[in-house]
Amino acid sequence: MSQNHEKSPQHCAKKGLSIDKRYKKLLYVFFTSLFSILSIVIIIFFLLHPSKPEFSLKEVDIYQLNLFTNPQLVNSSIQFTLLSNNPNQKVSIYYEKLVVYASYKKQQITNSTSLTPFYQDHEESNLLTASLVGNGVPVTSSFGYEVVCDTAGGKIVLNIKVNGQLRWKVCNWVSGKYRFNVNCVAIMPFGPSIPSGPLSSRQGTRCSTTI
């Protein structure tokens, strides 16, 4: 007598159920391992507690700062050099979408200029140099009065501002993007007694950085 090897529907259902359980176990192991790895990376990241990058203004030269009335417009030409430093011993930094411009009395007086993205290793420093130009940049009616006051006071206070995004890198792990803003203050002599030529400021003034 031949044996019947056909499997009952109940047997197939039990087999299918065991396959589902096997996949569930594999998924559980996978996600548990992934979560453990991410947790370790995050814990290491916060234990290292990366310090924000440091910027200092090395040099600023104003080649042009002319005001035109009716309407109020400014032509400007400024060149600057910044020193960027990564103070972290075990965390490197990616800098992206960098935009820089100059402002005076809280008014932007140059067009925004993009800087090349770059990577900064542990405790590494880089020099950033750019030329800022503004042709016919509109300003408020009080701008001319502020210039007259600074002329009488014998100095001008200029702000170099950098906006961008950064990502922290720890070993092979790279964080998400964080926006940061840098504000550098340049104080230089300004007035009728100043010789002709570019106004220059050579200093190592520390800039304020917010993330």
From TrEMBL:
In what residue span(s) does the Late embryogenesis abundant protein LEA-2 subgroup domain sit?
Answer: 82-184
Keyword Transmembrane helix assigned to the entry: answer is: yes
Cellular component (GO) terms are:
plasma membrane; plasmodesma
Q: Where in the cell is it found?
A: Membrane
According to its UniProt entry, the protein's GO biological process terms are: defense response to other organism
Entry keyword set: Membrane, Transmembrane, Transmembrane helix
InterPro entries assigned: LEA_2 (IPR004864), NDR1-like (IPR044839)
Report the membrane topology from the UniProt record: Single-pass membrane protein
Write out the transmembrane intervals: 26-48
The main location is membrane
Tell me the protein's name.
Answer: Late embryogenesis abundant protein, LEA-14
State the organism of origin: Heracleum sosnowskyi
According to the entry, what is the taxonomic lineage of the organism?
A: Eukaryota, Viridiplantae, Streptophyta, Embryophyta, Tracheophyta
